[in-house]
Design a protein that fits this description.
166 residues, mainly beta, six-stranded mixed β-sheet, four-stranded antiparallel β-sheet, elongated
Length: 166
């Protein structure tokens, strides 16, 4: 099986033969090694040196130089809005305090659909409307330019991370 061993970020894409595309939700875009099948049927092994977040518009570089386009799949999200800038910042703080992935725009925040968080937002005076769109959450303070890596010290699904000294 042919392998994809590196990522060409969307801002560096300037050509190359795109032979297929993979449509992945947010969770499936955080990978290191997994067998994949493109929408056009191309099977390949994603084989990266470390877990990496694949961003919408990136390309996976196959061993023979051909490219597979990465597309963010539409997902069921909540679009959160508030009456003003301060109120939105307050909602962002409460969402961040729950350590969930969030995409922050100038006038709205998007999170995975969760009825409990929707009620919390509404209870704090915001709106939380269901939408279906690609999810592009923030990478996090310790993730570098790309990715959703962690560098803090609390449990996530049964595993630990540690704060950087500072």
């Amino acid at each position: 099986m042919i392998r994809a061993t590196r990522i060409l970020r969307r801002d560096a894409l300037s050509g190359g033969e795109i032979v297929d595309r993979v449509v992945l939700d947010h969770g499936d875009r955080h990978r290191r090694r997994v067998a994949m099948r493109g929408a056009g049927g191309l099977s390949f092994l994603l084989d990266l040196p470390e877990p990496t977040v694949l961003e919408d518009g990136d390309a996976l570089v196959l061993q023979d130089g051909r490219l597979v386009w990465v597309e963010a799949a539409p997902e069921r999200l909540l679009e959160i809005r508030a009456a003003g800038d301060h109120a939105l910042k307050r909602l962002i703080w409460h969402i961040g305090n729950r350590h969930i992935a969030a995409e922050i725009g100038p006038d709205a925040v998007w999170i995975a659909h969760d009825h409990v968080l929707a009620e919390m937002v509404r209870g704090l005076g915001g709106t939380a409307e269901p939408v279906v769109r690609p999810f592009r959450p923030e990478g996090g303070a310790y993730s570098g330019d790309h990715g959703n890596g962690h560098g803090h010290d609390h449990p996530h699904g049964g595993h630990q991370h540690h704060h950087a000294a500072g």
